[in-house]
Specification:
Elements: E1 5-10, E2 13-16, E3 19-22, E4 24-28, E5 31-36, E6 44-49, E7 54-57, E8 59-64, H1 72-81, E9 84-93, H2 99-113, E10 117-124, H3 127-130, H4 134-139, E11 144-148, H5 160-172, E12 176-180, H6 184-196, H7 211-228, E13 232-234, H8 240-251, E14 256-260, H9 262-266, H10 269-275, H11 288-299, E15 305-306, H12 334-342, H13 350-364, E16 382-392, E17 411-421, E18 424-428, E19 431-432
Parallel strand pairs: 1-6, 2-7, 8-9, 9-10, 10-11, 11-12, 12-13, 13-14, 14-15
Antiparallel strand pairs: 1-4, 2-3, 4-5, 7-16, 16-17, 17-18, 18-19
Helix pairs in contact: 5-7, 7-8
Bound molecules: zinc ion.
Length: 451
């Protein structure tokens, strides 16, 4: 006779955004059907004993770039090993490219290659010619659009006129703007001046991208989005100074969401001085004061999400620093290092970690309660996390194609040991049993939720 549950996860500590409970999780098909104490094991086909472990909603990594060393297949594979069950990719519409064609290409590639369920953010490199396509993107399930306030020299920067115009269209369609907030023109000037002086670009990397220029762009984006009344998501906040305008705008009730990344929470410019081009990322790794301010902003609820900015590039430690591209592999190590730095060191509780990684991103992008929570009716996307497992991060055990990790040699306590997507075990004890094409496309929806 068919049993009532396909799977029963017993005796684990199930964590949600508002706390942890020792309850069992029963799964039938792709869904969670009960979350209660004392469920009967005779009623389940398979039992997983999670005593002494956390049972967490799968991580939703909303900031990934599948256009570098890891494609949508490889990126989802490496992410899954780290406890991620949902990805939202930046679809790069470079100058000369059509936004809609780009979105369709990413959807096709994802359906073919992705191990994980995924959504898509439009990424406008040339808003002047791409804005008119924004309304059509909503019909394809895309409701968030990123623009760069940085990278003027690269011709990726959106000026304020087009930032406002894009936000206007996005807001009218019910979507959300996302910005990389650094002042691109002033950064370029500082860099040009420094190059003319013949300075060592590694030594001055942080000085040519100072915190003031992030804070200025954050304030400008907030101001423009306030005038246009467009919801705003600030990606990878990295400075103490950037927190201030956000705190003020949030207090005034503006719809703004703020993300930081594990690299800004666990490392400083000292890492760049050691690893050179490998640790060249944008925005740069900052000072210890900035790092601690980001933790404090998390504690106060000013920062809403942590996502990886996974963008592994082909580079080596002795490559010329100035020519090296920005970016690093992050998605696989994200949960482990943030847990180790945040929970083990007493900066945050487990429930806050779940908010940052699962509940808040699901709510912001309209995936909740299908994703982001372990409750009756939700997708059975979960992670069993062993808080006692001590391990050392090594590139050789990572699944990214990138030949390095910035966390090489870092000892961590706590690790995901089982990752499940929609009721199917994807990764157990480091073994992947999912396959490319398992992932489904997730349309996003911006509900302007209060977190
Ligand atoms: Zn990024």
């Amino acid at each position: 006779m068919e049993k009532k549950y396909d799977l029963l996860i017993q005796k684990g500590l199930v964590v949600g955004g508002s706390g942890a409970r020792k309850v069992d999780v029963a799964i039938k098909g792709e869904k969670i059907v009960r979350v209660e104490p004392g469920l009967k094991k005779e009623e389940a086909e398979r039992i997983i004993d999670a005593s002494g472990k956390y049972v967490l909603p799968g991580v939703i990594d909303v900031h990934v770039h599948p256009v570098y060393e890891d494609d949508m297949g490889g990126l989802s594979l490496t992410a899954a090993h780290g406890g991620v069950t949902t990805l939202i990719h930046f679809a790069y519409a470079k100058p000369g490219m059509k936004l809609i064609d780009t979105i369709k290409q990413y959807q096709e590639e994802g359906l073919k290659k992705s191990y994980l369920d995924f959504g898509i953010h439009g990424t406008l490199f040339d808003p002047a010619s791409q804005i008119e396509e924004i309304p059509k993107a909503f019909e394809l399930g895309v409701s968030s659009f990123k623009m760069f306030m940085a990278y003027a020299k690269l011709k990726w920067m959106t000026d304020d006129y087009h930032l406002a115009k894009a936000m206007d269209v996005i807001a009218q369609c019910g979507g959300m703007a996302m910005v990389h907030a650094e002042n691109g023109l002033v950064t370029d000037y500082l860099e040009d001046r420094s190059l003319a002086r013949g300075e060592d670009q590694k030594k001055v990397f942080l000085r040519t991208r100072p915190d003031h220029l992030e804070a200025e762009a954050v304030f400008r984006a907030i101001s423009i989005s306030a005038v246009i009344r467009c919801p705003l998501y600030i990606v990878h906040l990295s400075t103490a100074r950037g927190v201030t305008p956000i705190e003020q705008a949030k207090a005034e009730g503006q719809t703004i969401y703020v993300e930081t990344c594990p690299q800004y929470l666990t490392m400083t410019d000292a890492k760049l001085q050691k690893l050179g081009p490998l640790a060249k990322i944008g925005p740069p790794l900052r000072t210890e004061k900035d790092r601690l301010a980001l933790w404090s902003a998390i504690q106060k609820g000013i920062i809403d999400t942590v996502a990886s900015d996974h963008a592994p590039k082909a580079k080596k430690i002795d490559d010329p620093f100035f020519e090296a591209p920005y970016g690093s592999p992050q998605t696989e190590t994200m949960l482990t290092v943030t847990y180790d730095e945040g929970v083990n060191k007493g900066k945050i509780k487990m429930s806050r970690l779940v908010k940052l990684f699962s509940e808040n991103p699901a709510k912001i992008f309209g995936l909740y309660p299908k994703k982001g929570v372990l409750q009756k009716g939700s997708d059975a996307d979960l992670v069993i996390f062993d808080p006692k497992l001590t391990h050392t991060i090594r590139n050789e055990t990572q699944h990214s194609v990138a030949p390095y990790t910035l966390y090489e040699g870092r000892r961590c306590k706590g690790k995901p040991i089982l990752v499940m997507q929609r009721g199917r075990i994807l990764v157990e004890n480091g073994e992947m049993s999912g396959k490319p094409g398992d992932g489904t496309f997730l349309p996003t929806k911006i509900n302007r939720v209060k977190l």
